[in-house]
Amino acid sequence: MRPTVKAVCIGALVGGALDLAFAIGFAASNGLAPSTLLQAIASGWFGSASFNMGAVSVAIGLVSHFALSLGWAALFVALATWFRLTSRAWLSGPLFGAFVFLGMRLVVLPLSAFPKPMNFDMPGALYDLLSHMFLFGLPIALAARSFLSGRRA
After folding, report:
1. Phi–psi pair at 112, nearest 5 degrees
2. Of 75, 71, 47, which Cα lies nearest the Cα of 60?
3. End-to-end CA distance of the chain, in Å?
4. Is the N end or the C end of the chain the one with fewer CB atoms within 10 Å?
5. Phi and psi dihedrals of 30, rounded to 5?
6. What is the pTM of this model?
């Protein structure tokens, strides 16, 4: 497998899994079941109807989360090859994570069927930002550094 493909796949899998684990934990601390969180992700496709679709929307939410993770990881790897971002992965990863956080809240979700207006209410938005920076962006950057430069992260 090509190093760029490995970087994208490993970065997306690790970053996506860590971000989702955080989101599930945060949701659970607010009384929300993991299935409901995944249905909320699927609501980007189906709006409020997602919450009445049962296991189908749970599965679609899970697949959608990792599909988005792959897209974002591919973007980072492409940018990393053009702008040599891997030499400062500990900086570029969190900055990319912040970019993803803003991209999701200001572009992707508002253009989707997501049924609630986006907000930046605290402390939830801050936790989401930090998760995107350190649990999503950083693992993607470290995977890119590892596979694109031949060094282990």
Report:
1. -90, -175
2. 47
3. 18
4. N
5. -105, 15
6. 0.91
